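Practice problem: Farnesyl pyrophosphate synthase
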Amino acid sequence: MSSSDPQLFEAQFEELVTELTEQDLTDSVLADALNRLREMPYNSSLFLCLSVIGSLRELVPPTELTQDAVRRALLVGWCIELLQAFFLVADDIMDASVTRRGQPCWYKRERVGLDAINDSFLLEGSIYRLLRRHCRAQPYYVHLLELFTETSFQTELGQALDLMTAPPGQIDLNRFTMERYKAIVKYKTAFYSFYLPVAAAMYMAGIDSEEEHNNAKHILLEMGEFFQIQDDYLDCYGDPAVTGKIGTDIQDNKCGWLVVTALGVMTPVQRAELESCYGRHDSVEKVKALYNTLQMPTLYHQYEDDSYQRLQKLISRHAQNLPHAVFLNFAKKIYKRNK
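Answer key — structure tokens:
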């Protein structure tokens, strides 16, 4: 990734918002609705969105990467940000969340409420308007459309599994299996956070072989699974001053890696204690004490080391025709992170 890419990416934001709200549809009767689109949250995840241009720079020689190609890659990164915003606005409503990244959730803001459901649809629709305006003449346009629609459906299936596994007010640890947990993570997080940006870059670089995309998928889904397990660990053991958030997975009855792993190593007496405490605001410290007794930090760090070794083997096996740097750049950013 070029050192100027983050600046180019941020600079493009206002251009795209102006394009969506002032230049795309110009019917004056839509002014209020389009202004709403301008006001909506775009909390850019530079790690996620810059993965498109970062991967493209590894896949295409610098002499062949035109300024227009760079701009389109940055735009596709913004489309991934819009997709994530669509998911998160809706997810916060379904989870009855109060804050997101230190700010009130969009639906909690004054004069928004459940109108946020339609706002999430506007965010999703904006993706395809931008792709059409900027990529329609490119040979990879249909590939991008299919990639975004397929990834959206996969993520929605993962969200459905998540909602069914831990319904509000219903605590049933029998639902919390490692198989179900890994399915949720794969479909709800790994496809859109890890496979989508690299797959988009591959299509933009002219790599449309199903075999090569499957090879990349093997590696990236492993990475995405570990990334979510890290998040689960940091929710309990991370420093809020570093992570920027106070963890709530225990009191929110989340099906996370810590609880699922703990269920596999605890005694019947410890399980009974967990069942009486999990999902309750007044028993968080008791659950954490139980985790410490089970040496969950040690189990996590062992898992991290094992996962990194697995990743190296997957890269050697599946990235024979793809630059290893595409995957190693991801790995450097996520392994041993503390926020």
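Discussion: The first strand starts at residue 99 and ends at 100. Students who identified this feature from the tokens alone can consider the problem solved.
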